[in-house]
Structures are given as structure tokens and as C-alpha cells.
Specification:
It is a single chain. This protein is of the alpha/beta class. Helix 4 (about 95-110) packs parallel to helix 5 (about 130-135). The protein has two domains: about 5-30 and about 300-410, Aspartate Aminotransferase, domain 1 (Alpha-Beta Complex), CATH 3.90.1150; about 40-295, Aspartate Aminotransferase, domain 2, CATH 3.40.640.10. Helix content is about 40%, strand content about 15%. The strands form five sheets. The chain has a seven-stranded mixed beta sheet with strand order 4-10-9-8-7-5-6, with helices on both faces. A four-stranded antiparallel beta sheet has the order 13-14-17-16, covered by helices on one side. It is built from 14 helices and 17 strands. The longest helix is centred in the first third of the chain and has 21 residues, at about 60-80. The protein starts with a helix and ends with a helix. Bound molecules: pyridoxal-5'-phosphate. The site of pyridoxal-5'-phosphate has 14 residues, from helix 4.
Length: about 425
């Protein structure tokens, strides 16, 4: 039986919203996804019945809260496919997770003569921390370029790997182009050159990609809860235990210490060494509910549904008059490895005007550089309009989008 999102949509209250008297068509999932009712109620239940600080009290409530918090960590570990809960560190998001690695591992390990390789399609949060770290340490900052179909260019990748970089940081999938990178194959090649590998999984996990095999190869993986149908203000850094053990903490305070003396402090064990202060307890519990929700779905059928939806929308984009797609698909005969993330330009109409026009039709899309300015500069454009789909979106919604794009073209011409 093929998957139908209609039943699933009922579990996302916000999807019933009317905007300017029209049904909301939410196509800004790459920015943040919507939350199922179970996530909202898990957070509510926490505040109504379990609210206490974690790891700090012997009282009953604190134990309940600590148990809920730590059991979510175990859930995340299981979701990622590792038995090691100590390798799962809660952060404020993907950005925070990558900055943690840059500030801790990066400062301790990089020096002049080393190379850090990133890609042209990286989000600023997997670009700027490495750029800045290189500026600080004197290491070389190398950008792997894209080919004409917006995939990583093989020659550029090969040349970067030949430099034997200390670190390769790359996105599993691009938030601007929708490109899906063959991260496992690339990571294996990078490891063979002695590189450490960090994968930004912020855009991949919401499409139910499985990380288990990747974790056997790479060193760090980062994602955000809010893109994975969970609450904002929370993310995860997964890191290889041996590396995390050697990395110094970068934030100091409560919870991350075992013993503090006047002039010396002993760090706590993993993962708490990297979780200074009161964490986002309710959000962690909300993420736990999101993962439980995702695990209740048939991932195989959903991926199939999304792939089908993506290829149908891609064909529409390629045929749409006056619309230029900025992303893989145009040149790939076999059908591109891509997400339902579609960046586009409309002839003669500014990206912000398009987005505003679409907004008037109840369609939520995003306009701008999508935190990938080095990519925009290379393409010689200021920005794009981006429609990004999740598994609760339908082809009917895509049709509303295309009709509205054509209406916008008529209006602005
Ligand atoms: C690929 C990618 N990496 C990193 C981020 C940053 O995530 P956050 O803002 O949740 O830290 C985003 C957010 O759009 C993203 O799309």
C-alpha cells in the first residue's frame, strides 16, 4: 500500500491553519518543520507534571525529570544507530554542535600546514566556524566546488582529498539546492586520506535517512531537533567516544564538573562534560516524543512517497515556463539524488516579490540566500525563492504552488 499523508496531516494541528482565508500551504520545511500533537503534549505534560531540574535533586520530581531527559538520550542514540549514549551530546542546535567541534577539537588539533575542506553548498553554520578556525590557527581553508548539476564536482573533491585534509566537513543534503551527497562513499575516501569527517545531517534526517552505516565511518554528526519535527532550541552532536574523551570542554559551569577546587576542576564524564548549565529539558523530552512518532511510521514507505513526490515536482519545475530551477535535475538523465527542496528564480520577478505574492495565497516559502552566501556569490545571484517539502506535503499543494507562480508572473508582467 502506498503511503498517503492525509491521515498523518491530522496529527499536525498547525497544518489546519487558514492564512488570509486560504488553507496554509507550508513549504518552508527546510527552515523548520511543524510539530505533531504528541510533541506538543509531551512538553505540556512535562511542565504540568514533571518539571524539575535534572541531575541535581534527590527529590522525586527531579528524578522523574532526569530519567525522562536521560532516556531521550538513549532514544537518540538508538535512532542514530549507536549503543553508546555517552556519544550523544545535547546542544542548542546544529550550529551550536558544529561550533562545539570547531572550538574544542579544532583549536586543540589544527595548526599551520593543516587543511580543512568544506563544500560550496555548506550552510553558513558548517562554513563560517571552519573559516574562522583556519584564520585563527593558520590552517588552509579549502572549498570543494560544484559541477553544473549542483553536485560536488569530482575533480574538485579529488583535489581537496589529495591535500590530505585534517578535516572534511560536509552536508548530507543541501538546504538550498536539495542535493543529496553520497556522504558514506565520500567519507570513506576522506578517511583513507587520514581525514576526520564531520557530517551536517540537519537536512537529511527529516527525510528519514538512516545514519547507522555512516556512524561506523565518520567522526562527528550534527542535527537540529526543530527540523526533525521536534522543538526549537535543541540539537545533537554525535561524536566518536575516543575523540570526545580527548576534547576539552568549551563551556564551564554546573553539571559539567565532577569536582571543583580553588584552583583546579575535574571535568565530568561524557556526555555531561559538554553540557554545562541547565539544559533544554522540556525540549529534550519533546524531541523524544518526535523520535517516537517517527519510529511509529513506516520509514521505507515514507521515503518512497517523498522520492516520488520530489521527482514529480522536479519534472514540473523543469517544464514550468519562465521558471529557472537552481538545483540538481536539469542535467541528470537518471533522475537526480535530491530532496524536495526547490530553489528557483522567476523571470523578471524579484525573489522577495514572488515570496510575498505566494504568501498572499497562503503559501509559506522562503526568499534569500538561505545562509549559503558563498554559494550565491559563486552562482552570481543574490538569492532564490525556496519551496521545501516534508512528508506531510502533497502533490495538490505543489499544484497550488505552480498555479500561484504563474499568477505571479502574470501579475508582475
Ligand atoms: C544544512 C543545514 N545546516 C545547519 C543548519 C543550522 O541549523 P540551526 O539553525 O538549527 O542550528 C541549517 C538550518 O537551516 C541547515 O539547513
Amino acid at each position: 500500500m502506498t503511503f498517503s499523508p492525509h491521515h498523518l496531516r491530522e496529527q499536525f494541528p498547525i497544518l489546519q491553519t487558514q492564512v488570509y482565508g486560504k488553507p496554509l500551504v507550508y513549504l518552508d520545511n527546510a527552515a523548520t518543520s511543524q510539530k505533531p500533537r504528541c510533541v506538543l503534549s509531551a512538553m505540556n505534560t512535562f511542565y504540568e507534571n514533571q518539571n524539575a531540574n535534572v541531575h541535581r535533586g534527590v527529590h522525586w520530581l527531579s528524578q522523574v525529570a532526569s530519567e525522562a531527559y536521560e532516556s531521550t538520550r538513549a532514544q537518540v542514540a538508538k535512532y542514530l544507530g549507536t549503543p553508546k549514549t555517552q556519544e550523544v551530546i545535547f546542544t542548542r542546535g546544529t550550529t551550536d554542535a558544529i561550533n562545539l567541534v570547531a572550538s574544542s577539537w579544532g583549536l586543540a588539533n589544527l595548526t599551520q600546514g593543516d587543511t580543512v575542506a568544506v563544500t560550496r553548498m555548506d550552510h553558513h553554520s558548517n562554513f563560517v566556524p571552519w573559516q574562522q578556525l583556519c584564520a585563527k590557527t593558520g590552517a588552509t581553508f579549502r572549498i570543494i566546488e560544484l559541477n553544473e548539476d549542483f553536485q560536488l564536482d569530482e575533480a574538485s573533491l579529488e583535489a581537496a582529498l589529495a591535500l590530505r585534509p585534517k578535516l572534511l566537513a560536509l552536508p548530507w543534503a543541501s538546504n538550498t539546492l536539495g542535493t543529496i551527497n553520497p556522504v558514506l562513499a565520500i567519507a570513506k575516501r576522506a578517511k583513507a586520506q587520514g581525514a576526520f569527517v564531520l557530517v551536517d545531517a540537519a537536512q537529511a534526517l527529516p527525510h528519514l535517512f538512516e545514519a547507522k552505516d555512516l556512524l561506523d565511518t565518520i567522526d562527528f554528526l550534527a542535527f537540529s531537533s526543530h527540523k526533525l519535527f521536534g522543538p526549537t532550541g535543541l540539537g545533537v552532536l554525535w561524536g566518536r567516544e575516543a575523540l570526545l574523551n580527548r576534547m576539552p570542554p568549551i563551556q564551564f559551569g554546573g553539571d559539567m564538573v565532577l569536582r571543583v577546587e580553588d584552583h583546579h576542576t575535574q571535568w565530568n564524564e561524557l556526555p555531561w562534560k559538554f553540557e554545562a548549565g541547565t539544559p533544554a529539558i522540556a525540549e529534550v523530552i519533546g524531541l523524544g516524543a518526535a523520535l517516537k512518532f517517527l519510529e511509529s511510521l513506516d520509514a521505507h514507505r515514507i521515503r518512497e512517497y517523498e522520492e516520488n513526490l520530489t521527482q514529480r515536482i522536479l519534472q514540473r519545475f523543469l517544464q514550468e515556463p519562465g521558471v529557472q530551477l537552481i538545483g540538481p535535475g536539469k542535467h541528470s538523465v537518471q533522475g537526480a539524488a535530491r530532496l524536495g527542496v526547490f530553489s528557483f528564480l522567476v523571470d523578471g520577478v524579484h525573489t522577495h516579490d514572488i515570496s510575498q505574492f505566494l504568501d498572499q495565497q497562503g503559501i509559506a516559502v522562503r526568499a534569500g540566500h538561505h545562509c549559503t552566501q558563498p554559494l550565491m556569490s559563486k552562482l552570481g545571484i543574490a538569492g532564490t525563492t525556496r519551496a521545501s517539502f516534508a512528508f506531510y506535503n502533497t502533490f495538490e499543494e505543489a499544484e497550488v504552488l505552480f498555479q500561484s507562480i504563474q499568477a505571479a508572473r502574470r501579475y508582475f508582467q
